Amino acid sequence: MTNNDTLRSLRYTLNYNDAKMISMFTHVDHKVTRKEISYWLKKDEDPEYKDCGDVELATFLNGLICEKRGKKDGPQPEPESRLSNNIVFRKLKIAFNLKNEDVVDIMALANFEMSNHELTAFFRRPDHKNYRPCKNQMLRNFLKGLQVKYRPSESDS
User: Fold this and answer.
1) Where are the alpha helices (DSSP H) in the chain?
2) What is the pLDDT of residues 72-100, one digit of tens each?
């Protein structure tokens, strides 16, 4: 999954407008412009499309954690320079304050069954013998489950 796909999915799921997207970055003292956000959210084949880098997505996710969980005292966490699906998955789990059982339930909303044991392998250190890399399909299903759970329905508007 590209960082742009993840960003687009989260924007849709949370029903964020451009100003709200920009505010996620300001929570962690990072400035982005509406134009940058627009470029990252464009379809891949659009001539104005620009890649959302790992640092930018990590910054957005750190801002989302601040938005959902509250800002930590002291210096804000530095964004990772290299992101993996495992890191994105972990940051989303933190942002939405999910326990493993909640994540398993969210995956079920996307018609994807997994056990708590399978899930914990994604959140281990990479050098742990039971670590498992999170593949694109897994992250995609988690984002789809988040969408089912958190996307405001049309009747709520």
Assistant:
1) 3-14, 18-26, 34-41, 54-69, 85-95, 100-109, 116-120, 136-150
2) 887 778 899 999 999 999 999 999 999 99
Please name the amino acid found at residue 44: D
CB atoms within 10 A of CB 53: 15
| Rounded (5°) CA angle 50-44-52 | 35
Question: Helix, strand, or coil here: 115?
Answer: coil
Q: CB count, 10 Å around CB of 74?
A: 6
106 close to 98: Cβ distance less than 8 angstroms: yes
Q: Write out the DSSP string of 45-65.
A: TSTT--PPPHHHHHHHHHHHH
pLDDT at 71: 85
| Distance linking the first and last C-alpha atoms of the chain | 30
Alpha helix ranges (H) inside 15-53:
18-26, 34-41
